[in-house]
Design goal:
The protein is of the alpha+beta class. The chain has one domain. The chain contains four helices and three strands.
Length: 142
């Protein structure tokens, strides 16, 4: 689920609250949480770099609680599957404004910057990477 300190987007906070409420009613309790970040609260460019490349840790000014980090490598096929699943969210599919198209054409010409073949939305560049990165937290038995 979303990392509450890294990704305090209100929908993601609500997801965490729903998770904990469901845990309170469930017989089987998870032992481990895998936390991820979609929207950093202070940096909309992370992760840097092209889609389908590796992902580094986000910038952090303070230590984040975690028992360890876990990174999972996605095959090219899994990256396509993830992009297609994300594209089911129709808010990731609107056409780009003329100004943004022009800016991207200039960036491509001057810096060689490329966007993923799966879509033009900036979120696809950030979300579909060679590695999935998770902060691992062990849950208390209480």
């Amino acid at each position: 689920m979303p990392h509450p300190e890294l990704d305090p987007h209100f929908d993601h906070i609500a997801t965490g609250q729903a998770f904990y409420e469901a845990c309170g009613q469930a017989q089987n309790q998870p032992e481990t949480l895998l936390l991820y970040a979609n929207h950093l609260h202070d940096n909309d460019r992370w992760p840097m770099g092209d889609a389908n490349t590796g992902v580094a840790l986000p910038p952090a000014m303070e230590v984040l609680p975690a028992d360890m980090l876990f990174s999972y490598e996605l095959s090219g096929e899994q990256q396509i599957d993830k992009a297609m699943a994300l594209l089911m969210q129709h808010d990731l599919q609107p056409p780009l404004a003329v100004k943004k198209r022009l800016r991207r054409a200039i960036q491509a010409a001057l810096t060689g910057r490329r966007w993923p073949k799966t879509g033009e939305n900036e979120f696809l560049r950030k979300a579909v990477r060679k590695h999935e990165l998770f902060w691992v937290r062990k849950l208390n038995a209480d």
